[in-house]
Amino acid sequence: MAFGDCADWCHFRGFVRSPLLTTAFQVASRLFLVWGVVDIFPEVQPHWAFTTMTIAWSITEIIRYSYYAFNLAGFHIYALLWCRYTFFFILYPLGAGSESILVYKSLPYSEQLNIVYYWIQIVILFVYAPGI
């Protein structure tokens, strides 16, 4: 592999099918929401966006890992494939929108906690829409 050729490394040497950067951003986003927003600012948990985010994440993961498990077992279930790529159109905006709302709702608490963290959250909010 030549220097700069990321065909293997961008896909983390076959561990993930998506590009490594995409996967890293998705994992970082969820970690940030769970530990950097919901855990630090439990005041946002009663908001409806917490419920819709959790539902979107849960349904997505149930479909994704069911699809992977059946494929590994040699079963190719069309209904799971259809669900995986059709539900995406509803669940992805629902989850990402809910995440954005929770970050926004946590801003007053963040500003009281740490002004630098507050501004980091502001930047994240501005990056969220184009990042989707």
From TrEMBL:
<feature type="transmembrane region" description="Helical">
    <location>
        <begin position="75"/>
        <end position="95"/>
    </location>
</feature>
<keyword id="KW-0456">Lyase</keyword>
<dbReference type="Pfam" id="PF04387">
    <property type="entry name" value="PTPLA"/>
</dbReference>
<keyword id="KW-1133">Transmembrane helix</keyword>
<keyword id="KW-0275">Fatty acid biosynthesis</keyword>
<comment type="similarity">
    <text>Belongs to the very long-chain fatty acids dehydratase HACD family.</text>
</comment>
<keyword id="KW-0256">Endoplasmic reticulum</keyword>
<keyword id="KW-0443">Lipid metabolism</keyword>
<keyword id="KW-0444">Lipid biosynthesis</keyword>
<comment type="pathway">
    <text>Lipid metabolism; fatty acid biosynthesis.</text>
</comment>
<comment type="function">
    <text>Catalyzes the third of the four reactions of the long-chain fatty acids elongation cycle. This endoplasmic reticulum-bound enzymatic process, allows the addition of two carbons to the chain of long- and very long-chain fatty acids/VLCFAs per cycle. This enzyme catalyzes the dehydration of the 3-hydroxyacyl-CoA intermediate into trans-2,3-enoyl-CoA, within each cycle of fatty acid elongation. Thereby, it participates to the production of VLCFAs of different chain lengths that are involved in multiple biological processes as precursors of membrane lipids and lipid mediators.</text>
</comment>
<keyword id="KW-0812">Transmembrane</keyword>
<protein>
    <recommendedName>
        <fullName>Very-long-chain (3R)-3-hydroxyacyl-CoA dehydratase</fullName>
        <ecNumber>4.2.1.134</ecNumber>
    </recommendedName>
</protein>
<feature type="transmembrane region" description="Helical">
    <location>
        <begin position="115"/>
        <end position="131"/>
    </location>
</feature>
<dbReference type="InterPro" id="IPR007482">
    <property type="entry name" value="Tyr_Pase-like_PTPLA"/>
</dbReference>
<keyword id="KW-0472">Membrane</keyword>
<keyword id="KW-0276">Fatty acid metabolism</keyword>
